Amino acid sequence: MGTLTEPHEGDPRTVLAYRIVEWGHPPELVEIEAPRPGPGEVVICVAGNGLCHSDLGMAAVPQAYGEALGWRVPFTLGHEVGGWVAEVGADVTEVGVGDPVALVSASSCGRCPFCAAGHDNACTDNGAGRGYGRDGGLAELVLVDSARAIVPLGALDPHLAGPLTDAGATTHHAVARVLPRLGDGSTAVVLGVGGLGAFAIQLLRALSPARVIAVDPNPVRRAVAESYGATATVDGVDEDTAHSLAAMTDGAGAEAVLDLVGTDATIAAGLASTRRLGAFALVGAGGGTLRRPWWGALPPGAEVFTFQGGSIADVRAVVELAERGDLRVDVEPFGLRDVATAYERLSAGALRGRAVVQPGR
Length: 361
What we know:
24% of the residues lie in helices and 25% in strands. With 361 residues, the protein is of the alpha/beta class. Helix 5 links the parallel strand 12 and strand 13 (211-215).
């Protein structure tokens, strides 16, 4: 067993963690016992944990629903983790103390047919995981129960890597699926330029020759989209969005539409903007529905799909792209004692980059 010794304020046997301590109550910053690794386990010193919109509803999850998913209260929030290996348990040979790493967000067993086929994001074990029902990365240290979840970073700064593991990987999963439709002269539409949308624009630009049109009602976010390489932007989303996009695609619609919002309005606009034999990817979890009969609402012959997060392969792919300089990770850093403020700014849409909590600040 090896150990990475880091400076620690207060009792070295405890760490600070931002946790849901009771069902139905807001999360709190508390001291907990420092994790120690058992056989096959690894402890990570957290450099940065990205914040996600899905975190905002964790405290409101009904107890019955959470327990049905396998959640155990109390638990520490945070599922976008970058850091260094602090301590390894017996039988761990894949990583060593001091290695910079990122942690795959979704849990997976590695044994089921989904995992065997590389679709570990569809594993039935992912109902509970790091930051959603089990201890996550909004802490100074986090325990990892399997080296399967660890992705080496090489020269990539672990302070910045966290958002790649969920926002980046999830978006990569969608982009990779629509790539076969994005040849020369094609168009891809990105609905919503938040954390996922920023990655979507960059990935589409890096991996395809498609023209990229970004749609967002916020002029600041549209400017961000242009800085990431969007060819054009549209002020949306409303009943005129589909008409605007139709006019920009000679009436045919886009070969691929990625909805990173997922409300009634974006789903309707996205489907109406997808051309025949195109692809519509519903990635955002805004709670929207398709409120019309499918006949006439779905583009003929098109692929319409959704999914849960990215796979281990997606995380490795975006890490490689970031290390090559083909994928930029813009973050707004916060200290661990400023988590509540960071979540407030995330909820208000007041962030320009991805909020990342860095316990060392």
